[in-house]
Protein: Fumarylacetoacetase-like C-terminal domain-containing protein
Amino acid sequence: MALLMRRGMATMASLKRAGKVICIGRNYADHITELNSARPKQPFFFLKPPSSILLPGEGPVIRPKGVDLHYEVELALILGKRVRDLSAQDEQAALEAIESYALSIDMTARNIQNEAKKKGLPWDISKGFDTFLPVSKVINKAAIPDPHNIELYLTVNGKVQQNDSTELMLFRIPRILSDISKVMTLEPGDIVLTGTPKGVGPVVPGDVMRAGIRVGGKELEEAKIEVAVEESTSSYEYAET
Structure:
């Protein structure tokens, strides 16, 4: 039985105060293939810190020294209710738990992630740097009548790199929220990233990423992201663990 409690409308400022950001990995078959990963038997998820969120107009994505930086465009769910032990068959409750949407780019330090996967270490560093989660403006729920039938795209310097429909998700949103909620209670304001389609790849300082959502072929203005990449000036530099 699901426990669901409602809160108010999400704002851009409230996204920074999200209790947690949960990311579904390997949710598009062609993306699994391009990274030579194993296809999961159930939704696989990990966390990104809310401090990685980069709001529109806050500045560039910062590439840490020594990092092979990759983009991954994803539909983000913004929760408006508390959800615990949700049934995967309860599609109505799952969709009602979503307060609004956003588009996001899950930036990944691919060389750090690959090392972690090879050595059986956590992925936290590869996903957790500041600016590693650019997001769009909050998208009103009514603008996306069916989150399983929208087009996600991402370009780098004007060249299309990712462009696929959410119809291709291996695990749909009710199953995603169900599996997460059986492990950890989802709270109002939590953000769930639903996975990335094929076409992920590197960006370097000087590149400009643009991403968006099309619903029925029509662009959603509030979903547009435009963000540049710059090199870090911090003292961090990647070194093998």
User: Anything to note?
Assistant: The chain has a mean pLDDT of 94. The chain has one domain: 12-231.
